[in-house]
Specification:
The protein has 392 residues and is α+β, with helices and mostly antiparallel strands. It has two domains: 257 residues, Metal-dependent hydrolases (TIM Barrel), CATH 3.20.20.140; 61 residues, DNA polymerase, domain 1, CATH 1.10.150. Strands 1, 2, 3, 4, 5, 6, 7, 10, 11 and 15 form a ten-stranded mixed β-sheet that branches. Strands 13-12-14 form a three-stranded antiparallel β-sheet, with no helix packed on it. It is globular, with a radius of gyration of 20 Å. The model has no long low-confidence stretch (mean pLDDT 93). The structure holds zinc ion (2 copies). The site of one zinc ion has 7 residues, from loops.
């Protein structure tokens, strides 16, 4: 059994011939570039690609298979060159009768199952070619459809204020899913503004795996959060086994942002244009009750939690990591230099010693990388769509 780094939420910006797949994503974020970049630079073994149902992307995948660069794995998932594994999936937005919407991740074992699902879901999506996320189904209906095609269903960034189940739909997932389906949901995605300690204040999540994924909209953001899976080999089937803790497979650790760095950690006043400090839950702006406030993940959790002490029993540790691009005075040139020297961003963030780092980058940067490992950087909390900031 080996440890594998797994990031199950990476978007596609464009198809290889330049068609837009998802708005507000980088132009160079193609299926092939994701595979290549993670293969050569990032050190992530398994990537979940969540915009694969667009026919343009399916064409790209088929072209890579024809070229011999990509092949289906026996246990599910696709292998790029020697060893990089990609899991094909979609992120979809469902709508409840109560007027709220939420995102979910859907993954499929093979190109065939993905294509069958894509064909069926087309009926419920306005434009499957691009920005294909909005579908006219409820969470329960989407769950049923994913299950029918042999896929796996995972609620995405489950606490974020606008597009998530706990963020704006419900206090309990049992308001959305029937009991049988709820039991079958193997995992939930924490999102950048929460960690395992925060989420384990909800007792209904006790049986669910917590995932820390990047939700990357650019190549550089891949792996800013990831999970360490213990598996026999990287494949779709092994991931499902790890979710269920079968035959020694497991999730060994989560690596994620300090939740304060996330874009929705604290409540944010849209009129005053700033994060509102103070004891959570903050639901109103102190300047005026009339100001519109985006409720932070931390604040929302205070309202819905049913447990005061986080219960981490049996949960893997959640380790904070601060990606290089978040560190003060670290630009693209320094990032390139560090990655070229140490082989991958993971090595820079978690392996290299202070002396080794200081030989390649400024001493201050080396010191900050070490402090970030120890969770000792001082951070100004994010909110309302604005990332938190490492204080220089
Ligand atoms: Zn996403
Ligand atoms: Zn205000």
């Amino acid at each position: 059994m080996k440890d594998y780094f797994v990031d199950l939420h990476v978007h596609i910006g464009r198809s290889s011939n330049g068609n837009e797949i998802k708005r507000a994503t980088a132009k160079n974020l193609t299926f092939e570039n994701i595979a290549f970049e993670s293969y050569t630079r990032k050190g992530i073994d398994v990537i979940g690609v969540v915009d694969c149902i667009s026919p343009y992307v399916i064409e790209d995948i088929e072209r890579l298979i024809e070229k011999g660069e990509l092949r289906e794995k026996k246990g599910g998932g696709m292998e790029y060159r020697k060893g990089q594994v990609l899991i094909l999936g979609a992120e979809l937005e469902t709508h409840e009768k109560r007027g709220c919407s939420a995102h979910s991740l859907c993954f499929f074992p093979s190109l065939k199952t993905l294509k069958d699902f894509a064909k069926d879901i087309t009926k419920h999506i306005k434009n499957i070619y691009n920005c294909s996320s909005i579908c006219r189904l409820t969470g329960q209906q989407l769950f049923d459809m994913v299950e029918y095609y042999g896929g796996t269903y995972i609620p995405a960034h489950i606490f974020t204020p606008h597009k998530s189940f706990y963020g704006n739909c419900c206090d309990s997932l049992l308001e959305i899913f029937n009991e049988k389906s709820f039991e079958k949901i193997p995992a939930i995605e924490l999102g950048l503004s929460a960690d395992s300690m925060m989420a384990s204040q909800l007792s209904e999540l006790d049986g669910k795996v917590f995932l820390s994924n990047s939700d990357a909209h650019s190549l550089i953001k891949m792996g800013r959060e990831y999970n360490v899976f213990q598996m026999e080999e990287p494949s779709f089937e092994e991931i499902l086994k790890a979710f269920k803790g079968i035959d020694g497979r497991s999730i060994k650790a989560n690596y994620g942002l300090d939740p304060k760095l996330g874009k929705y950690h604290r409540s944010y006043c849209l009129i005053c244009d700033r994060v509102i400090e103070g004891q959570a839950p903050v639901l109103k702006c102190p300047v005026s009750e009339k100001h519109q406030v985006v409720v932070g993940v931390r604040d929302r959790l205070m309202l819905i939690k049913d447990r005061d002490n986080p219960r981490m029993n049996g949960r893997p540790p959640y380790r904070y990591q601060v990606p290089l691009e978040f560190l003060p005075k670290v630009g693209p040139k320094t990032i390139d230099k560090l990655i070229n020297h140490f082989g991958s961003e993971m090595n820079v963030l978690h392996q290299a010693t202070f002396e080794e780092l200081a030989a390649v980058a400024k001493e201050e940067i080396a010191r900050n990388i070490i402090l970030s490992r120890e969770g000792k950087l001082s951070i100004e909390a994010g909110g309302g769509g604005v990332y938190g900031k490492v204080e220089a």
